[in-house]
Design brief:
Elements (H helix, E strand, L loop, with lengths): L8 H41 L25 H8 L4 E8 L9 E8 L6 E5 L10 H9 L3 E5 L13 H16 L5 E6 L1 H12 L5 E5 L5 H6 L2 H4 L3 H15 L8 H5 L7 E6 L7 H11 L3 E6 L7 H4 L1 H16 L14
Parallel strand pairs: 3-4, 3-5, 5-6, 6-7, 7-8
Antiparallel strand pairs: 1-2, 2-4
Length: 342
């Protein structure tokens, strides 16, 4: 028997440690690709929360041949664009689901109209307040009071694809009801359209919804995006699992098509572009069928995304105003202008 202090004892211990070292090195070599895989998936998933377009100059999720280059305008620009000087409208603060960022202010522009009926405009992701001008212009011309919400999307906070917008919509509607406005509709574009549907499903506050270019389900929206579509299927599934952390819930649960089935008696106008690859006509049809008998759909003659108002402005305004008038039951001549400050 060899004792530890006898010759040959060290060699015996070393011979036992050698397989352990080989096993440890082998485990590390196997674990390293897994770690790289998971870390890479984490950052791809992060890009879904912080998409590249937020870092570009105009930073907005609307595209098409006739879409202008939005710039953050002054109050004079907005006044000139709509034809009336707006007032700042503060509906308080809301917090993103999960509380990962500081509370955001649900603020926007209030355009006093000739009617007591109010239309809230929820813009697409990342756009400046100039994005609301073409919508506020034709809605105000039709006599409606308009509140245009800020986008609140930027490279610091990213986008949660309608979940925060739904809180903006509900906070604004509550503030309006406190101010005595009982007849409220909402028009959302892209992310704003998804947020409008989500808001009504959570709390029935609106008499009508115009959903322009909403996606049907967030997982499927991401799966057909260029950044995910070309990935290895197994890696793409890992990205989808990682994305749950960024959005605070399974992506399948972020689903305007599911929420559309819970709108109650609220009329819904679905607007989708015929050649939109981001939110195709199929998404609009899913939402249409889920909403049921109180829904209708217009397929706009555009191959862009969320750009129907720029592609066919007169047809867009006519369809939306006709839908809103019918939803509000408006048949009479508009009353005198209402003045209001908040």
């Amino acid at each position: 028997m060899i004792r530890e202090n006898e010759p040959g004892a060290g060699a015996g211990v070393a011979s036992k440690r050698k397989p352990q070292r080989i096993f440890a090195v082998g485990t590390l070599l196997l674990a390293l690709p897994v770690l790289i895989w998971v870390v890479a998936a984490f950052f791809v998933a992060r890009s879904l929360k912080y998409p590249a377009f937020l870092y570009r100059g105009n930073g907005q999720d609307v595209s098409g041949e006739h879409v202008p280059e939005f710039q953050r305008g002054s109050i004079a620009d907005i006044t000139a664009g709509v034809g009336v000087e707006p007032e700042r409208y503060d509906a308080g603060t809301v917090e993103e689901d999960g509380g990962r960022h500081r509370p955001a202010s649900a603020v926007g522009w209030y355009f006093p109209g000739k009617r007591r009926e109010v239309v809230i405009v929820l813009p697409a992701a990342g756009g400046s307040e100039d994005q609301i001008i073409p919508y506020a212009k034709f809605l105000h011309a039709a006599g409606y009071t308009v509140v245009g919400s800020y986008s609140a999307n930027n490279p610091e906070f990213g986008i949660n694809w309608g979940m925060l917008k739904r809180k903006f919509a509900l906070a604004t509607a509550r503030a309006l009801k406190t101010d005595g406005f009982d007849k409220i509709a909402i028009l959302g574009i892209s992310e704003g359209a998804a947020g409008a549907i989500m808001a009504q499903a959570e709390q029935p506050m609106f008499m009508a919804i115009v959903a322009d270019s909403s996606y049907a389900n967030l997982r499927r929206l991401f799966q057909r995006s260029p950044s995910i579509e070309g990935l290895n299927p197994a890696f793409a599934r890992t990205v989808m699992r990682e994305a749950q952390w960024w959005f605070g819930r399974p992506l399948d649960k972020i689903s305007p098509v599911t929420d559309a089935a819970n709108l109650g008696n609220c009329p819904l106008l679905v607007i989708q572009n015929r050649g939109d690859k981001i939110t195709p006509v199929a998404d609009g049809r899913e939402i249409l069928y889920a909403a049921g008998v109180n829904s209708e759909m217009w397929i706009a003659p555009s191959d862009g995304h969320g750009d129907a108002i720029y592609e066919a402005p007169e047809a867009y305004a006519a369809r939306v105003v006709k839908f809103l008038d019918a939803s509000f039951g408006i048949v009479e001549t508009p009353a005198p202008a209402i003045t209001k400050k908040r």
